[in-house]
Backbone:
């Protein structure tokens, strides 16, 4: 799984006016939630945060937050929510969720199909039924994507099932392994 480090600092200002001034000075507010503990208000340098969030967009990523002024120093988190301005597309606020990297969590992972199916070369049509799967495992064990080789698929065959996808050790499939993800008609 992708890992990114984002620097931050504790935030001491709250409310609509101070948040507006914070954003005008190139700082983005955020909050860190950590399972039952008091939420930690944070602030980020806006351009640095935008670059990091753009880099991980649409991918599963464990983020190491370096919190200036915090007794813990660094924390392992996942992005929970990003609020953006609908007109300017600027990041207005980010919520993070602290995780234990040694505890299993559920993730949605994309499936990438590699090659050209034999049946497609012979005039068949490739039908894709699943482009992502639900997996459970420790965050650092989860792959960025699952690769499926479709070069051996012929027309009219049963196709490739979710059980045919190779998973890393310590990662479990949360879906029916008999479900067909791709076939050639």
Residues:
């Amino acid at each position: 799984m992708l890992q990114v480090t984002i620097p931050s600092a504790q935030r001491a200002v709250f409310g609509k006016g101070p948040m507006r001034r914070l954003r005008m000075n190139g700082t983005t507010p955020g909050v860190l939630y950590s399972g039952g503990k008091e939420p930690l208000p944070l602030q980020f340098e806006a351009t640095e945060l935008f670059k990091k969030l753009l880099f991980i967009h649409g991918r599963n990523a464990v983020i190491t937050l370096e919190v200036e002024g915090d007794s813990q120093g660094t924390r392992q988190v996942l992005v929970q929510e990003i609020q953006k301005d609908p007109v300017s597309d600027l990041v207005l606020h980010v919520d993070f969720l602290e995780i234990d990297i040694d505890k299993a969590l559920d993730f949605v992972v994309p499936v990438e199909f590699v090659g050209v199916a034999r049946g497609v070369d012979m005039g068949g049509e490739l039908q894709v039924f699943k482009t992502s799967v639900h997996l459970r495992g420790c965050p650092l064990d989860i792959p960025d994507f699952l690769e499926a080789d479709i070069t051996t698929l012929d027309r009219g065959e049963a196709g490739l099932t979710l059980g045919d996808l190779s998973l890393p050790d310590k990662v479990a499939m949360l879906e029916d392994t008999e479900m067909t993800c791709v076939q050639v008609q």
